[in-house]
């Protein structure tokens, strides 16, 4: 039986800070990277997506190994890959080296990221939703300050300093994990390959994956396109950093406010609200040409992310077949990353204005998935009651 200890919770959360900071800092750095290497918008999409594709692959590896092996050891290997990739990105001298290093960074992040919710929920089995919210809010508060701090304090330095910082933070976090020795998530026995066909017989799980694909696809596109769009309009780096910080700060604040609700029936309403917030943010950012509107739009996107993050993760773990929580969490992250990768790839050459309609359509699809998932939750609870 898993014994809950503070160190078992602090370790994974500390590692997740570096992982989330990649999400918050890299979009801010895209214009500077584009200028230094002289890259086109399609090449920038590859720099951005090479990480996302590698994460999508890495989470499947990490999830499978997390179900059959020593999860703590696999977790540490993933963090080491992430730190190494971050350092290689910092010293990349060409577009090809930059893209390859981003892939290694993403592979490491993919390996350890699906094990974060597993280790956390096993460390706090009585309040899994609350510990997931704490995880999201703590990482979010730290990460939300990163874009504004970097753009206002470290703006005079080259972009590669951010990746050096990521490498250092992840290595320090790895040391915390090794010292804390969190409860092992190792399964009692390795599953046979046919066992994974049980995932195909869990339709409620795939409904949640569809929801994740659409919501995270829209949010990821916003993170990719907004900084480049604002840079085209010669908006100052500090202003771009402020908008990104507002997004992540609103995510953290709303996550904190929701920490006591996600384990209650309100989970359904929270999940339904997420795509509505995201859909409202896009047209506001594009149509209302003012700094205030951009800030409100970023806050709406951050709120939507908070409303989708913990509920969808909790449903994935609830709907996961017995003994397959790690691979299910991996697929959760894979669909989130694939949503972002495919959205950025297909809309890389599209104007920000034209993409707004596509984002609204994706949010509508996410809303349909949310309705279906909450209905499945009612049926699932009746069966398991």
From TrEMBL:
One of its GO terms (molecular function) is transmembrane transporter activity. Keywords: Membrane, Transmembrane, Transmembrane helix, Transport. The keyword Endoplasmic reticulum does not apply. Residues 8-378 form the Major facilitator superfamily (MFS) profile domain. Gene3D superfamilies: MFS general substrate transporter like domains. One of its GO terms (cellular component) is membrane. SUPFAM superfamilies: MFS general substrate transporter. It is found in: Membrane. Signal peptide: none annotated. The chain crosses the membrane at residues 9-30, 45-65, 74-95, 132-153, 159-179, 205-224, 236-258, 270-288, 294-317, 354-373. It is a multi-pass membrane protein. This is Putative MFS family arabinose efflux permease. The lineage of its organism: Bacteria, Pseudomonadati, Pseudomonadota, Alphaproteobacteria, Rhodobacterales.
